[in-house]
């Protein structure tokens, strides 16, 4: 074998296994740990002829690692070294090293918990923190603890969080390899780019072709950006002999082979890649890396029960991995498309998938393992409780778990199918409906990326994908082959034969998988829908599905407002009612309608938050009064017919209550805040026969408010805060309790002649504030001391007013003058 940098660390790895059953190996990119360590350890006597299982996070890396090790042994893949990935396997009875991925290890443990015939489990590239690796490590540790104390574990990574691993592995030997380090010249942008990222990448590729030697590996967040950069470069003047290649997980084997094969003499390759090339893959000839500094991953929203792809800034660990691609075989160059000052602000590590992913598959695996809850397993990062609770709620609704959280027989059948629990439930139920074959096609399609090449405008109708699966049209042949193989495998597992897909029933199949995404069109002819989970969703305006009233939606983004529908199928309401008979409910609804400003009553048939049908009925009963009260709360108390008398009663009561003159706990609180909050309580008895805003004018608000007081309280109110005061002239003048801290008596000056003592209320505790008015009811003076007013202020007022109102009474001696209601002589 060719010497590799990891060779110097191999004796230490072997020695570590002599004293411990678990070992951590840290080695930089390009050291050769993936392909050299398993071949070295397979000869260890403690294996006793048993095999090594190595978990790889990516299918392409798993297959290439197995092929490379087989070539090192001068054998075909599938003999001593083999692989097992989703939809493809090359293993035999002679296989001693088996490279697996995509949850294969988890299924092996569930199938045979003691892992018979396995002596070592290797977790490679663990820094990528896939959810499969985290769960696989937790289950393997549980097997080691309770069933197989002779089982050994090796965790390998380029950038390892040793502290976190030690928390679950315990104090174990850590072997570190410095590897072979070639220098990398790193170039940053001088300023933040203003162009689109694809234009910046294309410009930098041209720069790299001029300035550096060797093939160029370009890191982009996804296929969409790869296609855009590819078009920009194809439309530009690339140097002669430059070959454009693309590399991503959904690329066909031919396209992947072209990207990974060394360039012919006299030519250079530009490889546009997703993060698939970050680790595990050595691409011969690459000396230059162009890094856009972006990453794309799924983010799950437990409240909405949906995931969406999010483009984020790549972590420092990831961009350092990418830079290392340029120095695997010699000195290299790395062009980073961000400023050097921004580099330190990058997150240190990528977010573990278990923290942000849909946890329904994990929750099903945990239940199948019998752990009950995640606390029973050793996770480096425990799954978030909100995500896990939502996942268990989904499994409960699908019938996979019982109320205790234990796996049901239906759940066990689901767990045996290598697809998402939603799709497993769909397949099992579809078989009962005679749609098992079609369901397997649908499940295989939904487990893969879109069969239609990205960028091609086709309808979001699932039927277009079913036709493309077995018909003609422009499709991704690699994806189609994987989907067809996946569908065949599923049919074998569930025991159904291959039949022509029933396009008319695609909607009900999606409804079985996504009952929370059954949707009804909001308005006739519109493209916006309401889903059963309460979330809105929108079709592309050009989709022919917009003529359908009901849809079952398979794929949406996780937008905050209306989610975008990417894949759906029409479904019939009668079929929904039939299939979901136990979950469809019927009820009478009475509610306030802001649009109609009236109480609406209807009989509805619903599935979750989705109303399947509705019929208008006559509103009646207490529910009408409650709904009317809700409407008043929504519109505000100002819609009620407040009279002067009613407002005065409120003001008097509040003046008494706020000054502590009555017991606070028993006295009605008539503030706007309290009346609004309790409108259903205090106003409901008076709303008989009232169903519209206009009818509120019938209410006697003084009568309504007085009903809130006991007779004794009303008597106390009259005693403490009288509604009126009798003036010396014999008039009864209403006091204004809303003006401030003191009630105001606004009275014409002539009616107060002869009175020297200011009127008081509340047993004499509070003197009223007197506003003395002119004959035209304009303010002349404000006083709380009448005696002083007559002697000091009145003479000036008399002098001024006699000229303005010569026909009115202005005596020189107001203390001995007769009060009068008549102002003229």
Structure description:
The protein is α/β, with parallel strands linked by helices and 825 residues long. The chain has 28 helices and 31 strands. The protein has an eight-stranded mixed beta sheet, with helices on both faces. A hairpin with a 2-residue loop joins β3 and β4. α16 packs across α20. The model has no long low-confidence stretch (mean pLDDT 90).
Can you summarize this structure?
This protein is an alpha/beta fold. The protein contains 28 helices and 31 strands.
Distance between the termini: 129 Å
Total number of helices = 28
Q: Give a count of the beta strands, DSSP E runs of length 2 or more.
A: 31
The fraction of residues assigned to DSSP E strands is 15-25%
Helix content: 25-40%
Return Rg in Å. 40 Å
- Please state how the strands of the largest beta sheet are arranged side by side: 4-3-5-2-6-7-1-8
Overall residue-averaged pLDDT value: 90
The largest β sheet comes out as:
8 strands, mixed
In terms of topology, how is this protein built?
Blueprint (H helix, E strand, L loop, with lengths): L9 H10 L2 E5 L6 H9 L9 E5 L3 H14 L8 E5 L2 E3 L6 E4 L3 H8 L6 E6 L7 H16 L5 E6 L4 H8 L4 E3 L7 E6 L7 H15 L3 E5 L3 H13 L6 E6 L5 H8 L7 E6 L12 E6 L2 E8 L4 E8 L2 H9 L7 E8 H4 L9 H4 L3 H10 L15 H13 L11 H7 L5 H12 L3 H12 L14 H9 L6 H18 L11 H8 L4 E4 L6 E4 L4 E3 L11 E7 L6 E8 L2 H7 L4 E10 L4 E10 L2 E7 L5 H14 L8 H15 L13 H6 L1 H4 L18 H6 L4 H10 L3 E3 L5 E3 L9 E5 L11 E2 L4 E2 L1 E5 L5 E5 L2 H19 L21
């Amino acid at each position: 074998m060719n010497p590799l940098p990891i060779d110097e660390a191999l004796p230490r790895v072997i020695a570590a296994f002599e004293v411990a059953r678990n070992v951590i190996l840290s080695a930089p990119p390009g050291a050769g740990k993936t392909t050299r360590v398993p071949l070295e350890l397979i000869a260890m006597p403690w294996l006793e002829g048993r095999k090594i299982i190595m978990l790889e996070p990516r299918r392409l890396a798993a297959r290439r690692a197995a092929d490379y090790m087989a070539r090192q042994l001068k054998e075909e893949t599938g003999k001593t070294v083999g692989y097992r990935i989703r939809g493809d396997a090359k293993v035999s009875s002679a296989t001693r090293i088996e490279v697996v991925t995509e949850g294969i290890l988890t299924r092996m443990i569930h199938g045979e918990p003691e892992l018979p015939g396995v002596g070592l489990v290797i977790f490679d590239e663990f820094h990528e923190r896939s959810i499969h690796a985290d769960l696989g490590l937790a289950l393997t540790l549980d097997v080691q603890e309770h069933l197989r104390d002779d089982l050994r574990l090796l965790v390998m990574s380029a950038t390892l969080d040793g502290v976190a691993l030690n928390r679950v592995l315990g104090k174990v030997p850590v072997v570190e390899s410095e590897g072979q380090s070639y220098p990398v010249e790193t170039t940053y942008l001088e300023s933040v780019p203003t162009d689109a990222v694809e234009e910046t990448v294309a410009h930098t590729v041209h720069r790299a072709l001029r300035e550096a030697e060797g093939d160029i590996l370009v890191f982009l967040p996804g296929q969409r950006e790869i296609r855009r950069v590819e078009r920009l470069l194809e439309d530009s003047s690339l140097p002669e002999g430059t070959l454009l290649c693309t590399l991503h997980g959904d690329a066909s084997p031919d396209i992947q082979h072209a990207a990974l094969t060394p360039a012919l003499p006299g030519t250079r390759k530009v490889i546009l890649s997703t993060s698939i090339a970050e680790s595990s893959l050595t691409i011969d000839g690459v000396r230059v890396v162009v890094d856009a500094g972006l990453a794309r991953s799924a983010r799950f929203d437990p409240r909405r029960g949906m995931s969406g792809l999010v483009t984020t800034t790549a972590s420092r660990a990831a961009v350092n991995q990418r830079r290392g691609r340029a120095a695997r075989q010699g000195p290299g160059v790395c062009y980073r498309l961000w400023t050097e000052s921004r580099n330190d602000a990058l997150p240190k590590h990528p977010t573990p998938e278990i923290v942000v992913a849909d946890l329904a598959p994990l929750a099903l695996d945990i239940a199948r393992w019998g752990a009950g809850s995640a606390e029973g397993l050793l996770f480096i990062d425990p799954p978030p409780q909100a995500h896990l609770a939502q996942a268990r709620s989904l499994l409960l609704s699908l019938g996979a778990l019982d109320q205790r959280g234990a796996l049901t027989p239906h759940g066990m059948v689901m767990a045996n199918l290598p697809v998402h629990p939603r799709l497993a439930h769909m397949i099992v139920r579809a078989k009962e409906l005679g749609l098992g074959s079609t369901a397997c096609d649908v499940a295989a399609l939904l487990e893969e990326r879109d069969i239609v090449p990205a960028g091609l405008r086709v309808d979001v109708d699932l039927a277009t994908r079913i036709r493309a699966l077995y018909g003609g049209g422009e499709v991704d042949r690699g994806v189609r082959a994987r989907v067809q193989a996946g569908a065949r495998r599923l049919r074998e597992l569930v025991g159904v034969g291959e039949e022509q897909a029933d396009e008319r029933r695609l909607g009900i199949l999606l409804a079985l998988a996504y009952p929370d995404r059954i949707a009804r069109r909001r308005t006739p002819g519109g493209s916006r829908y309401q889903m059963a989970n309460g979330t809105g969703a929108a079709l592309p305006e050009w989709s022919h599905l917009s003529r359908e009233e009901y849809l079952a939606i398979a794929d949406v983004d996780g937008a905050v407002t209306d989610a975008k529908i990417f894949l759906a199928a029409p479904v019939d309401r009668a079929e929904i009612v039939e299939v979901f008979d136990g979950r469809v409910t019927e009820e009478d609804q009475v509610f306030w309608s802001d649009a109609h400003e009236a109480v609406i009553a209807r009989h509805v048939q619903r599935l979750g938050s989705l109303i399947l049908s509705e019929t208008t009925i006559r509103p009646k009963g207490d529910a009408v009064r409650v709904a009317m009260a809700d409407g008043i709360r929504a519109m505000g108390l100002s819609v009620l017919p407040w009279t002067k008398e009613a407002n005065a009663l409120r003001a008097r009561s509040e003046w008494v209550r706020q000054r502590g003159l009555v017991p606070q706990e028993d006295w009605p609180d008539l503030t706007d805040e309290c009346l609004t909050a309790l409108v259903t309580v205090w106003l409901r008895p008076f709303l008989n026969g009232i169903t519209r805003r206009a009818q509120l004018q019938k209410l006697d608000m003084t009568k309504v408010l007085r009903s809130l007081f006991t007779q004794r309280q009303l008597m106390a109110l009259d005693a403490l805060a009288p509604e009126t005061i009798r003036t010396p002239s014999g008039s009864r003048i209403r006091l204004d309790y809303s003006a401030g801290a003191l009630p105001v008596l606004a009275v014409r000056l002539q009616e107060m002649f002869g009175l020297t003592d200011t009127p008081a209320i509340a047993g004499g505790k509070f003197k009223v504030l007197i506003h003395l008015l002119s004959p035209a009811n304009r303010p002349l003076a404000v006083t709380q001391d009448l005696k002083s007013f007559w002697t000091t202020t009145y003479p000036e007022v008399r002098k001024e007013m006699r000229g303005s109102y010569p026909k009115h009474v202005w005596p020189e001696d107001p203390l001995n003058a007769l009060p009068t209601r008549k102002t003229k002589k």
